[in-house]
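Q: Here's a chain of 138 amino acids. Please give me its 3D structure as tokens.
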Amino acid sequence: MARLLDALRLQIGLTGTKEGCGEGECGACSVLLNGELVNSCLTPLAHADGTDIVTIEGVASDEQLHVVQQAFIQCGGAQCGICTPGMVLAAMSLLARTPQPTEADIRAGLAGNLCRCTGYMRIFESVLEACRHLPPKL
């Protein structure tokens, strides 16, 4: 019954995924599991067997940051860094479903992620900025 979070951090060495609360309330441990946003602190490792897992380390391609990562840097959405990996993955999950979200969509899409540094406005601005740079869907 090992947690996915522990396997990622301790066994594989992917420390970008953070442990905040350990109870699925803060979103710091968020990862994409088969494209769905999940709290890795609540996900048994056995449930991840054979799945496609994306952590913050897998978001950039080669040396190029993802547009969401670039927007977080540009808009100051990343501060202390504890919530940032989960926020970036939550934003990517939201934008995959809703490429042109309203502010209400963004608030709902990021609701499972807590931040103590930014007051959220810079994070919301980061998601809106990322929308401006997303490639058009075919």
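Q: Can you summarize the key feature?
A: The helical segments are 4-12, 67-75, 84-97, 103-109, 121-133.
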